[in-house]
UniProtKB/TrEMBL annotation:
FAD binds at residues 87, 233, 499-500. GO terms for molecular function: flavin adenine dinucleotide binding; oxidoreductase activity, acting on CH-OH group of donors. InterPro entries: FAD/NAD-bd_sf, GMC_OxRdtase, GMC_OxRdtase_N, GMC_OxRtase_C. Belongs to the GMC oxidoreductase family. The active site is at residues 500, 544. This is GMC oxidoreductase.
């Protein structure tokens, strides 16, 4: 029989929440931990095959919380899909498994903004080496000239398996060779602290299987960690200014003698805070929610990475997966073979990614750049800080390619980093079951539009280089021309979210009026309540931030344990 009283309650089992719950439960004092997840505990029989990483959202809809944004004014008033993982492990169960940690200058900026060296590069390396990463590099000898991890900044015995593929597909080699000779730039270790250049990107995977936060931290959980799935927390219970527990949608209440930790993500965490009477007074008044604690920054400062796909038809195939994935019988047979002995097509396809982060110094000499605040301008000039990202080893997903699936295609994604557009998460009603309003305000800042043009032109120049163009027949989906207006028109029609929401319960110092948590993750003005997920980031780091979710969890676990068990 499930009890109602615990030492700590953690809400949400994504990378940060799973980590915090597991680490606290492993403390020698053996505190009683309750981890509550709104989603299911998924049967992973086929769900976690790495070769099928691109189809997780469509193949397993019961693992997904489907959101859409408000109409995006600067993207032709389009609604943008904004899906999140609703499953044990959170979005780590549906993402593309790319493990990138970003530039070292981002971490030092984070530490400076919040006044705490815990977030600096040096401490991030310590945590990854000692606790987080279990890095597996089993690449065969012929491919080792394309990836050489710097093990002085990586861990080998941590909780999260991170791997580089054993065998590489031909198209990956073509793209990396082209990066070397085209001037785009090449990187042997994209996670060394300097991410600039095209690289083979590690995956959160081992032996061809996705490794989720649930697998990394919750498998073989100790008996003092209770995991409750399919229970949506709808309210944080406050007594005065202290959080003492939570209530779930079915009515049950659970109490924490020490602390409640909210790790529901950058969309659901601010929603839960506001439903609990914690947020901006005017926002709560609009929905007739009793104000228990005025915290004006809740839901503000939403940041995300905007991205877009380009596609070209190839003259001849240099991949083997198109015919395979178009044959349902072959897919089923391959799944059986892979499950039996780890061999076959699914041990080879999409085991790696080619990805790179790049500068575009031309944007630093513009009126849009000069309009930025001084701290941001200084950061963009730093040695390791990118403006944009290119990912190439991706299955066809654009309208033109999907309309003619019998051909082979090169599909590339461009991502914008250091976004300057700021959005918000607000309530749609006082009902806890109603979705929140999510408005990222994509493309609203002129610097983002400037960077989209620069990034697109640089990406197209790379594809047109002879080393890449030799196997290109013609463009299928892309801008009508290279002129700025056509590039911007293409972005407005087709750009989408990368599903990297962050910063909606921002960390900061007492001087920051919109900061919601301090550098120890404690909600300002309240006791017994912390927020530990990507919503606390003071800015969105220049990477695929699942890695930051795990790091945030490890840092928070250390800080909480230090407060109670040092």
């Amino acid at each position: 029989m499930l009890k109602n009283n615990y030492d700590f309650i953690v809400v949400g089992s994504g990378p940060a929440g799973a980590c915090v719950a597991s680490r606290l439960a492993s403390n020698k004092s053996s505190p009683a931990i309750l981890l509550i997840e709104a989603g299911i505990a998924r049967d992973a029989s086929n769900a976690d095959i790495l070769a099928e990483r691109w189809t997780s959202v469509s193949l397993f809809p019961n693992s997904v919380e489907y959101h859409t944004t408000e109409p995006q004014k600067w993207l032709n008033n389009r609604f943008i899909n904004y899906d999140r993982g609703k499953v044990l492990g959170g979005s780590s169960a549906i993402n593309m498994c790319a493990y990138t940690i970003g530039p070292k200058d981002d971490y030092d900026r984070w530490a400076e903004i919040v006044g705490d060296a815990s977030y600096g590069w040096e401490n991030a390396v310590r945590i990854r080496r000692e606790k987080l990463e279990a890095f597996h590099s089993v690449t065969e000898e012929e491919f080792r000239g394309y990836a050489l991890p710097d093990m002085s900044v990586h861990g080998e015995h941590g909780a999260l398996a991170v791997s580089i593929p054993r065998v590489w597909e031909r198209s990956m080699i073509t793209q990396l060779d082209a990066a070397k000779v085209s001037g785009l730039g090449f990187n042997l270790d994209i996670n060394s602290g300097n991410p600039l250049g095209m690289a083979s990107v590690p995956s959160t995977a081992k032996d061809g299987l996705r490794v989720t936060a649930a697998k990394a931290y919750l498998e073989n959980a100790p008996t003092n960690l209770t995991i409750l799935t399919e229970k949506q927390v709808v309210k944080i219970i406050l007594e005065g200014k202290r959080a003492v527990g939570v209530q779930v949608a079915s009515g049950e209440k659970y109490y924490a003698s020490k602390e409640v930790v909210i790790s529901a993500g950058a969309v659901e965490t601010p929603k839960l805070l506001m439903l609990s009477g914690i947020g901006n007074a005017s926002e709560l008044e609009e929905h007739s929610i009793e104000l228990l604690h005025h915290l004006p920054g809740v839901g503000k400062c939403l940041q995300d990475h905007l991205s877009i796909a380009f596609c070209w038809r190839k003259k001849k195939s240099d991949v083997d997966w198109r015919q395979h994935f178009s044959n349902p019988d072959a897919v089923e047979q391959a799944q059986v073979q892979f499950r039996e002995n780890g061999t076959g097509p699914l041990s080879l396809f999409f085991q790696g990614l080619t990805m790179g982060f790049f500068k575009a110094d031309e944007v630093l000499h513009t009126k849009e750049f000069e309009g930025l605040e001084e701290g941001m301008k200084a950061h963009l000039r730093k040695e390791t800080v990118p403006i944009w990202e290119l990912t190439c080893h991706i299955p066809p997903c654009t309208p033109g390619a999907l309309a003619a699936p019998e051909h082979d295609y090169l599909t590339s994604f461009v991502f914008l980093h250091n976004p300057q557009s700021r959005g918000e998460v607000t309530l749609s009603s006082a009902s806890p079951l109603a979705p929140p309003r999510v408005n990222p305000r994509f493309f609203s800042h002129p610097f983002d539009r400037l960077c989209a043009v620069a990034a697109t032109k640089r990406a197209l120049a790379f594809i047109r280089h002879p080393s890449m163009a030799a196997n290109i027949d013609f463009a299928v989906d892309g801008p009508a021309s290279d002129c700025d207006d056509d590039v911007l028109d293409y972005w407005r029609k087709h750009a989408t979210s990368t599903w990297h929401p962050s910063c909606t319960v921002r960390m900061g110092t007492g001087e920051d009026e919109e900061a919601c948590v301090d550098s120890d993750f404690r909600v300002r003005g309240l006791q017994g309540l912390r927020v530990v997920d990507l919503s606390v980031l003071p800015f969105l780091l220049n990477c695929h931030p699942v890695s930051i979710g795990y790091l945030v969890g490890e840092i928070a676990a250390e800080k909480i344990a230090s407060d109670y068990y040092s």
